[in-house]
Specification:
This protein has 144 residues and is of the alpha/beta class. It has a five-stranded parallel β-sheet, sandwiched between helices. The chain is globular, with a radius of gyration of 14 Å. The two termini are 12 Å apart.
């Protein structure tokens, strides 16, 4: 299965931004590990990160045309207010798994609601970088 991982605002700062909450691994280190894990479960993994909402929307809308069969999305702060991103998840026509490294439901009130979640097949929160591995392992059940 070809899986596109998309990362929203500030996720390029992993390892430096609030390491007590998000961990000390950089995004590149996390994705190196995920790509190795993808090989084990026979998934081809590609990834992109942007701080721009429009990039994420465009990548979601184009993912099926690029031959991806599923998307794993960490929308970062866009989770809480981006109706445009939510609509792109729905319009992508692909199963999308929303992943958050922190448990957004146990954080500040403003972070406890994701407008993106209702358009996703599944949500994984609070497992750190392991959430991306869990998403990979869950895809066979999620995409049925």
């Amino acid at each position: 299965m070809r899986v596109l991982f998309l990362f929203g605002p500030n996720l390029g700062a992993l390892g430096r931004r609030d390491p007590d909450t998000y961990g000390r691994e950089t995004l590149e280190e996390v994705m190196d590990s995920v790509q190795r894990g993808g090989e084990v479960v026979d998934h081809e993994v590609a990834w992109r990160q942007s701080d721009a909402e429009g990039d994420l929307v465009g990548w979601l809308l184009g993912a099926a045309g690029e031959g991806f069969e599923a998307v794993v999305l960490n929308p970062g702060g866009l989770s809480h207010y981006s109706v445009a991103l939510r609509d792109a998840v729905e319009a992508s026509g692909l199963p999308v798994v929303e992943v958050h490294q922190s448990n957004i439901y146990a954080r500040e009130e403003i972070r406890r609601h994701s407008v993106v979640s209702p358009a996703c097949r599944a949500v994984i929160a609070g497992a750190g970088a392991g959430g991306y591995h869990l998403a990979l392992e869950a895809l066979p059940w999620i995409t049925r």
